[in-house]
Amino acid sequence: GENVEQHPSTLSVQEGDSAVIKCTYSDSASNYFPWYKQELGKGPQLIIDIRSNVGEKKDQRIAVTLNKTAKHFSLHITETQPEDSAVYFCAAPRSDDKIIFGKGTRLHILP
Amino acid sequence: DARVTQTPRHKVTEMGQEVTMRCQPILGHNTVFWYRQTMMQGLELLAYFRNRAPLDDSGMPKDRFSAEMPDATLATLKIQPSEPRDSAVYFCASGLRTGRGYEQYFGPGTRLTVT
User: Fold this and answer.
1) Is B26 touching A (CB cutoff 8 A)?
2) How many CB pairs below 8 A link A and B?
3) Do A30 and B100 touch (CB under 8 A)?
4) Chain A residue closest to B42 (CA)?
5) What is residue A89's predicted lDDT score, i.e. its pLDDT?
6) What is the model's pLDDT at position B40?
7) Nearest CA to B90 among B20, B15, B18, B3?
8) Segment B48-67 mean pLDDT
9) Please, which residues bridge with residue A45 across strands?
10) Which residues contact A83 (CB under 8 A, 6 or more apart)?
11) Candidates A34, A36, A42; nearest CB to B101
């Protein structure tokens, strides 16, 4: 069945460096790709999303890129800060409209 | 600032007891989701509703879980009887449809511990 693969599961980067998280999906008809950030003890928070009619979207230090041919999309965080430490989830809709989440990436920003 | 609210935030109960979790979606959102999050399984979709009608509850163990929307401002998830393996964080999210997906806004979750 359709699923979403997310890599890496854990990522440590030095403060100020960039972080990249990648997801692949299997349903070629998927057309909406959100990213969520989950801090300890809180629910996931939508931070950015992209629709299939664009290849890249940027919001300050975060950006998402989409490659529909290869069926993958990525989250890019530049100039990382301590408050970026969290778990990040990607998601994609399935043909039955169910939203499938990746397993998450735990991002550590090192001082 | 519109938010999804969930009650209770924490619940500790003994095996066999009934547990009811409540969610107030964001006003104007017509789709409500229930998720369960564990370390092993990640975020699992249990059920979702659109315009208060259940669209899919295939992610729920039918014999013990039930989800309802008595009105547009309240969604409930009930477990009866509860078991230790139900221990998890349960999230409610409300959303707006976009394309084939949904912009979802999550509540703070209910942390359930069944002893």
Assistant:
1) no
2) 63
3) yes
4) A103
5) 96
6) 79
7) B20
8) 90
9) A37
10) none
11) A34
